[in-house]
Write a structure and sequence with these properties.
Blueprint: H1 2-8, H2 21-30, H3 36-55, H4 86-98, H5 109-118, H6 122-125, E1 133-134, E2 139-142, E3 144-148, E4 154-158, E5 167-170, H7 173-185, H8 206-219
Antiparallel strand pairs: 1-2, 2-5, 3-4
Helix pairs in contact: 1-3, 5-7
Length: 229
């Protein structure tokens, strides 16, 4: 998506050394219609490209270092996210427990239970390692998340999604039961992750879990919700 946004604009079909400051200014001003997350990705990619060009001596001056081209703020209205009601949570968990996963297919039941009982983001859950879970202190240390790079490659990013994101999450009794069962079922993998895609031999991304999440929501007759709920 990030590349497509750039490609759709004039600068996307213009050699970087030929892009005028006026064109760049127009592009930076135009991306404020996207969310702040998308803006950050697009802005970072363009800035990265200019840094490469400057270090390679293709340009004498890097306009992206100027205050005139600072990252804009989104003009997009933020979506309101509502949480599950207690009754909806019960229906979701019941639908999750009743769902039969076909043989050989990935199941994300445990991740969704951890999400609902612990309030973790899915990227944080899929980046968990056994050493992050301390049953004695009843805490999970959140210090990494799954994300995508500029080349759309999925990787583990050290540190949480936001500055406030690195934290310790208390382990309640329901969460403890799911975590213990998960660790008992965990298989060895090259990254030492609690959750790992053994079909593709790689990291599990939130998008993979999202399809499964919506399937469970349909079974539970839940509408207008997302994983943030």
């Amino acid at each position: 998506m990030t590349l497509k946004i750039i490609e759709r604009h004039t600068i996307g079909s213009t050699p970087l050394v030929d892009i005028t400051e006026h064109q760049l200014e127009g592009f930076i001003g135009d991306i404020n219609k996207y969310s702040n997350t998308v803006i950050s990705k697009v802005y970072s990619m363009v800035k990265y490209a200019y840094n490469i060009a400057y270090r390679a001596h293709l340009i004498d001056y890097n306009p992206m270092e100027s205050l005139s081209f600072k990252k804009p703020k989104s003009q997009k209205r933020r979506k309101k996210v509502r949480g599950f009601t207690e009754e909806e949570q019960k229906r979701f968990v019941q639908a999750l427990e009743d769902h039969k996963v076909p043989y050989g297919r990935n199941t994300y039941k445990k991740q969704l239970l951890i999400e609902i009982y612990g309030g973790l983001r899915m990227g944080e859950i899929n980046a968990l390692k056994p050493e992050d879970i301390d049953f004695d202190k009843k805490l999970i240390h959140i210090n990494a998340t799954v994300t995508k790079g500029m080349d759309e490659r999925v990787f583990i990013k050290e540190g949480a999604k936001t500055a406030e994101g690195e934290r310790y999450v208390p382990i309640n009794s329901k969460l403890a039961a799911v975590l213990r069962e998960t660790l008992d079922e965990m298989r060895t993998n090259s990254l030492g992750l609690v959750f790992y895609d053994y079909n593709k031999y790689g990291i599990i991304h939130t998008n993979q879990v999202n399809c499964f999440f919506h399937r469970i929501c349909e079974k539970a007759d839940l509408k207008g919700v997302s994983q943030h709920s």
